[in-house]
Structure formats: C-alpha cells, structure tokens
C-alpha cells in the first residue's frame, strides 16, 4: 500500500494571500489563498435563505391542497403531486439548514468549511425524488392493470389550473433570482417547481381529455386516464432528479470537472513557456459552491533567487486566470527548486 505525503510551506509579501481561520486554530501549514469578499457573499446568502423560506411556505400550502383535493376527487395523480410537494418541502427545509451552515466560519473540526455538505444534500434530495417517482410509476401500472378507477374531474381541473399557474410563477421568479446568486440549492428548488408545474399542466390536459371523452360517449375510457397520466408523468420526471444525483456524486467523489482541468492545463503551459518552469503539477476540484485549486511549480535555476514579490506576481496571474475570487475559492500556489516536492 502506497502513502503519499503532501507538504506545503509558502511565503508571500502580500497579507491578502492568507486565508483566515477560527482564532483558536494554529495552522501547521501556511497556505496561499485569495481574500474574502464577505459582504457581497453574505448578501447573496441572505437572499438565498429568504428565497428558500418563501419556497418552503408555498410548497407546504401546495402539498396540503394536493393531498386534500386528491382524496376528495379520488385521483392518485393528484395525491402523488401532493406527496411530491410534501417531500419537496422537507428537502427545502434541509437546504435552508445547509445555507445557514455555509454562512459559518471554519471551526477546529471543519477547517475547510461546510461546502461538502451541499452536494451530500443534493444526493439525498435527488435520490428521494427519484424513489418517489419510481414508486408512483409502479402504483400507476398496477392501477392500469386493475382497470383504472373513477374520479371527480371537476375538482381535478380546479386543482390543476390553480397549482400549474402558481408553480409556473414560482419557477420563473426563482430562476430570475438565481441568475444573480447562482445557488445549486435554489437550482434544485427551481427544478422542483418546474416538475410540479409540468405535473399540474399534464393533469389539466388529462382531465380535460377525460371530460371530453365523457361528452362524446366514450366514458368507459375515463377510468384509465388518472393512472395513465401518472405513469407517463413519472417516466418523464425520473431523469431530472437522477441527473442531479449524478452531478452531486461527482462532487462528493472529488472528480475534477473536465473544463476546469483543461483551463488549468492551458494556463500552466503558457506560464511554463513564459517563465521556463522545470516542472509543475496542479490539482483542482469543485465541492458544492467551493472551488479548490492547488498549483505546485519547480522553478528554473535562473529563478532560484527570485524575490517573494516576483513570485506573488505569478500568483496574481494564476488568480486572475482562474477567476471566481471570493470566500468560496481556495487557491494554493507553491514554489520549489526540488522536484520531489511535487
């Protein structure tokens, strides 16, 4: 079994490259990081929490309405919509808790912050939504095999119109806000509102078709409308949470995004051509909203006595090329003359 040890000791003439941690921590390694844009991030996080709180309240209302109307009308599809909203409300509560954790400073136990919790929540949320869709699909197929069931279309149409319009408004509103703050948690909530709007719109279409069938003397087909539309909806919706789960699992496993790897490789090739570096290596990944980048450089003999300020200029160039400066980016740049430290 192999053992890899990474040791980094870095010097800088710029205090802004230091990342602060909890005051009771004496770091064993001195890392080079970019300064925090605390005020701007705090405003974005406050807005994120406010949006999630409003979404939670609205989701609870939709869930209660859906379950009640589903029981009155006898529609399994409407009950599924209500249960979907109830589960979404629980997940929204968990997302709200995560946003509060992300506001906290590093602690003795969590010195890298709480970014890793965000993809874990996305995996949990997406998995539950996928399981709910699969369970509803199984029930829908069973309903079709059992010959369907009668339901009250008047209540169904009323529910579908109200909820579809409401969910569409919430979807458009949150999408507009998220273009500014770019939150993965709100992004998942946006998908949930879109899924709810699609479900309600499909219910409206299905109930309208059922009402038309009764008017043209084909009422014997209406019992199959409810389980049929439920089966179709679940098949269409299952890929959405599964896609979220796959993306979040990649972050949990610290898989480097291909575009980030390509960007760093081109950057280091350009710097090597400009400064004549002997060798270099880089490591990067995304975890939730956190971006972690390490760059290790073996300096040529001509730069053996390079001043700290000259090295800071190289750091600045790397920092500007990577972008995304702020509290969510951890950038480490180390210089050495000995290749064994890579």
Automatic annotation (TrEMBL):
It is a multi-pass membrane protein. The keyword Transmembrane helix applies. Residues 55-238 form the Cation efflux protein transmembrane domain. GO terms for molecular function: cadmium ion transmembrane transporter activity; ferrous iron transmembrane transporter activity; zinc efflux antiporter activity. The keyword Membrane applies. It is found in: Membrane. GO terms for cellular component: plasma membrane. Pfam families: Cation_efflux. Keywords: Membrane, Transmembrane, Transmembrane helix, Transport. InterPro entries: Cation_efflux_TM, Cation_efflux_TMD_sf, CDF_Transporter. The chain crosses the membrane at residues 56-78, 84-102, 114-138, 153-172, 193-213, 228-249. Its main location: membrane. GO terms for biological process: intracellular zinc ion homeostasis. PANTHER family: MITOCHONDRIAL METAL TRANSPORTER 1-RELATED. This is Cation diffusion facilitator family transporter. It comes from Paraburkholderia atlantica.
């Amino acid at each position: 079994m192999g053992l890899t040890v990474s040791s980094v000791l870095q010097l800088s003439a710029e205090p802004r490259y230091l990342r602060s941690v909890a005051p009771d921590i004496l770091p064993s390694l001195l890392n080079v990081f970019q300064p925090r844009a605390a005020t701007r991030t705090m405003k974005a996080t406050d807005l994120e929490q406010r949006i999630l709180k409003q979404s939670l309240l609205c989701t609870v209302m939709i869930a209660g309405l859906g379950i009640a109307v589903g029981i009155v009308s006898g529609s399994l599809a409407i009950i599924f919509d209500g249960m979907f909203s109830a589960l979404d409300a629980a997940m929204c509560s968990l997302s709200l808790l995560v946003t509060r954790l992300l506001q906290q400073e590093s602690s003795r136990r969590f010195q890298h912050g709480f970014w890793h919790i965000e993809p874990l929540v996305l995996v949990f949320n997406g998995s539950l939504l996928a399981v709910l869709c699969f369970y509803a699909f199984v029930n829908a197929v069973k309903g079709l095999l059992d010959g369907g069931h009668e339901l009250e279309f008047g209540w169904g149409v009323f529910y579908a119109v109200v909820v579809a319009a409401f969910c569409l408004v919430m979807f458009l509103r949150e999408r507009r806000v998220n273009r500014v703050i770019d939150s993965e948690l709100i992004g998942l909530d946006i998908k949930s509102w879109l899924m709810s709007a699609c479900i309600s719109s499909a219910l409206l279409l299905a109930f309208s078709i059922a009402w038309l069938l009764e008017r043209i003397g084909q009422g014997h087909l209406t019992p199959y409308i409810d389980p049929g539309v439920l089966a179709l909806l679940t098949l269409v919706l299952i890929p959405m949470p599964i896609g979220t789960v796959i993306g979040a699992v990649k972050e949990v496993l610290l898989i480097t995004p291909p575009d980030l790897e390509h960007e760093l490789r081109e950057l280091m090739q350009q710097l090597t051509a400009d400064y004549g570096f002997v060798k270099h290596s880089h490591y990067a990944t995304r975890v939730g909203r956190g971006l972690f980048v390490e760059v290790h450089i073996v300096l040529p003999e001509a730069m053996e006595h390079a001043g700290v300020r000259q090295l800071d200029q190289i750091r600045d160039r790397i920092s500007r090329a990577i972008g995304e400066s702020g509290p969510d980016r951890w950038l480490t740049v180390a210089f050495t003359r000995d290749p064994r430290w890579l």
